[in-house]
Amino acid sequence: MASTETQPTASRPRPDDDEKATSAAVTTAARETPASGSDLAGLGAGLDALDTHATARPALREVLRRKVLPPVLAVVLVLALWQAAFALGLKPDYQLPSPLMVWDALAEEWYKGTILGVVWQSVSRGALGFGVALVVGTPLGLLVARVRPVRAAIGPILSGLQSLPSVAWVPAAIIWFGLTNATIYAVVLLGAVPSIANGLVAGVDRIDPLHLRAGKVIGARGLRGVRHVLLPAALPGYVAGLKQGWAFSWRSLMAAELIATSPELGVGLGRLLDTGRSYQDMPLVLGAILLILLVGIGIELLVFAPVERRVLRHRGLLR
């Protein structure tokens, strides 16, 4: 009887055996983990080395050769062709002045002390009008992008307004507001708001739906979702819309200043251009055109180009 009672107890697994098996498994896993971790560390170090090599800043000489020299050569070529056309007498000098004559006309305006005031008048108007267009166009773009009935109703209208030449709004604005600054700002808004809104809509349409779902999971809904998920993800398209909006606002401003002329409106670049036309002063006309072009290019290079490069580099789209 004693042997039959002790048989079951001998066949039971002992707790010490389970602990030994578990510790052996942990030891084996610990031995394998450093090897896989070292492989991942080596792979990460290699990728970092490649990325560091790719993002190394080029030398100043290389930057000058690639980015500064081409536009300088283009300007020199245009001036050379312009001077050649003047020397060959393709047009009378009162219709096609030489580059030196245009420079003299601008220098005369500089000596009068008026050119800086003229440029500032137009730049300040353009900046204020663009700022108001930004405040109006951003929520409008978000509304059109996220609310389907609003998009179906307003989306085609925004596209139509964007394709409409801004100069077409000048006569209507003059009738509505008279020869006042409100006319100029109304034309600027009607030219810039559709571009800003459509740019934001295009940026939102390119967002990966997984990003929006992830934002909802972590609680980014409503205004928090717009601030922390929607706008950052749509930033490349939004910046492109801002660039286009500034171009449209600048063009709209020049059209408004050129047509809506009044002593109460002051003298901007558009007014300077119209003054040259009134006096048949072709050097002044070309000089005003060059100033308008230089201001537009300067705003693009100093404001929008750095912002766009930073956004694209942050997204890994530019090195």
UniProtKB/TrEMBL annotation:
Chief location of this protein within or outside the cell: membrane
* Domain ABC transmembrane type-1 residues, every copy: 119-303
Q: How does it sit in the membrane?
A: Multi-pass membrane protein
Which residue windows does the record flag with biased composition (Polar residues)?
A: 1-10
Q: Enumerate the Pfam families for this protein.
A: BPD_transp_1 (PF00528)
Q: Which InterPro entries does the record associate with it?
A: MetI-like, MetI-like_sf
Q: Which residues form a coiled coil?
A: none
Q: Which SUPFAM superfamilies match?
A: MetI-like
Region feature Disordered, mapped onto this chain: 1-39
Transmembrane feature ranges: 68-90, 126-145, 157-178, 184-204, 225-242, 284-305
Compartments, record wording:
Cell membrane
Q: What family is it from?
A: Belongs to the binding-protein-dependent transport system permease family.
Q: PANTHER family, from UniProt?
A: ALKANE SULFONATE ABC TRANSPORTER-RELATED, MEMBRANE SUBUNIT, TRANSPORT SYSTEM INTEGRAL MEMBRANE PROTEIN
- Its recorded name reads ABC transporter permease
Q: What is the protein's species of origin?
A: Streptomyces tubbatahanensis
